[in-house]
Design a protein that fits this description.
Blueprint lengths: L44 H13 L4 H21 L11
């Protein structure tokens, strides 16, 4: 009944009902963090680009790599069409 005593918070030892595993169940983590090298803080722009290229080169899914290259090629051709680039300079007559 102390007037000048601060109240102590209650402490609970709670574990989630369906949690089976190790570590903290409340930790928010992306499900692909274990498989990527580009996650986390890095130095500058050059180190980020190098790590992204390494991650792209060591990707086991080759169809995804082909898909990315096709999308990049289509975007380049659309850009060249928009700026009205003359493709005839690449062909000889």
């Amino acid at each position: 009944m102390g007037i000048f005593k601060t109240r102590q918070n209650k402490k609970f030892d709670y574990t989630p009902q369906h949690f089976k595993g190790e570590g903290n169940p409340y930790e928010i983590k992306h499900k692909f963090d274990d498989h990527r090298q580009t996650v986390g803080s890095q130095g500058g722009l050059k180190s980020k680009l190098v790590s992204a290229l390494n991650d792209y080169k060591h990707n086991e899914d080759k169809t995804a790599n082909k898909r990315v290259l096709i999308i990049i090629a289509i975007l380049i051709f659309v850009f060249l069409f928009i700026i009205d680039f003359d493709l005839s300079i690449f062909f000889s007559k």
